[in-house]
Amino acid sequence: EPVPEPVPVLVPDGADTAQLRCRAQGVPGVQLHWEHQGHALRPDEPRFQEHQWREGPWTSSLLTVANVSQDRARLRDQYHHLNWDQSKKRHRHRYQNWHQDQNWEDQNRTLGTFVCVAQNPLGTVRRRLQLRLAGTVT
Q1: Which pTM was predicted?
Q2: What does the domain layout of the chain look like in residue ranges?
């Protein structure tokens, strides 16, 4: 069965923190945790703060990601660097490459994919959320 597309979570321009929300229910009760780049987030990681709570059958988790502007600056540098190279090398072919460049710009706004993992004794379900910059990177 195909893996569903990650759910985009937009970070407003200028914001330095982002929030990812996840909730799940199950019998028996569900535990939630987050993964990033294939690894479970460590509780002592200062950049990520998780708050988890229960409401009836539902377990909810709110993950706060700090220092978003750091990533934004890094992406902006990469983007300008790539575009500068392209305008030098591929000036005559710019129109042919338009779709490809659009696609790159789209990826360029992605700050990373986080996975919310819901677990109980009967199994595990993963849901992917993708942190993205709202608007364009200029």
Answers
A1: 0.73
A2: 7-85+109-133
